[in-house]
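Reminder to self: tokens first, then the designed residues, so the page reads top to bottom the way the pipeline ran.
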């Protein structure tokens, strides 16, 4: 009786469509850098346009009176909780009264591709700003317009709001 052993040296026949899956994956991976560059380009254009409209250089005024956390909590016990809270571009803003209008300004650090929120308020009376860098509290006088700028995550408040002038 003869036992036949299979020949392991014979190459298998490949199906005709087998290499296309690999080519599709390589093509998709090649498109990722192009998509990332396109996204960065369009984001940069939108920030530049918003920066021109916001005109950060034109937002000048005396600084808003700042509060400590203890002073802010003491004010909350007297007046009650913040009524209006919203998030914009990675920061959270809270106020008692008035209206808010937010945009972004171009960051002047790094490659210049970043941006930061700029929010203007008609008469907030009390402002709470939370960014990844901390919590900030301001108490502009009632009826006073205010603008909060958050470059590098540090909130700064001035008693001026050009977006609301003439409205």
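Designed residues (167 positions):
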């Amino acid at each position: 009786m003869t036992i036949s052993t299979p020949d392991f040296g014979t190459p298998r026949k490949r199906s005709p469509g087998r290499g296309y899956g690999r080519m599709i994956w390589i093509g998709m991976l090649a498109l990722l850098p192009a998509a990332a560059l396109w996204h960065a380009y369009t984001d940069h254009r939108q920030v530049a346009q918003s920066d021109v409209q916001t005109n950060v250089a034109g937002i000048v005024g005396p600084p808003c009176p700042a509060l400590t956390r203890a002073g802010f909590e003491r004010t909350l016990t007297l007046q009650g909780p913040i009524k209006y809270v919203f998030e914009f571009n990675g920061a959270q803003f809270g106020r008692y009264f008035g209206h808010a209008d937010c945009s972004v300004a171009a960051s002047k650090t790094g490659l210049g591709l970043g941006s930061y929120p700029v929010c203007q308020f008609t008469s907030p009376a009390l402002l709470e700003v939370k960014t990844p860098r901390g919590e900030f509290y301001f108490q502009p006088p009632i009826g006073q317009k205010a603008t909060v700028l958050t470059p590098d995550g540090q909130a700064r408040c001035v008693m001026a709001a050009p977006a609301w002038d003439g409205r």
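The mean pLDDT is 79.
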